[in-house]
Amino acid sequence: MLMLTTEIFIAIISLCITCFALGYAVGSKSNDKK
């Protein structure tokens, strides 16, 4: 149970980091166009 929870926690953190990275990249491109 603990292992499963840890895997889910890592998966969620990885997803958040990926979304943040993509959002930051898109935001940077938008700012450059301005």
Describe the 3D structure.
This protein has 34 residues and is mostly helical. It contains 1 helix and no strands. The longest helix has 32 residues. It is rod-shaped and about 50 Å long.
- Secondary structure category: mainly alpha
Distance between the termini: 49 Å
Work out the strand percent.
Answer: under 5%
* Rounded average pLDDT: 87
Share in helix: over 70%
Shape: rod-shaped
SSE blueprint and pairings:
Blueprint: H1 2-33
Brief descriptors of the model:
1 helix
Summarize, please.
The chain has 34 residues and is an all-alpha fold.
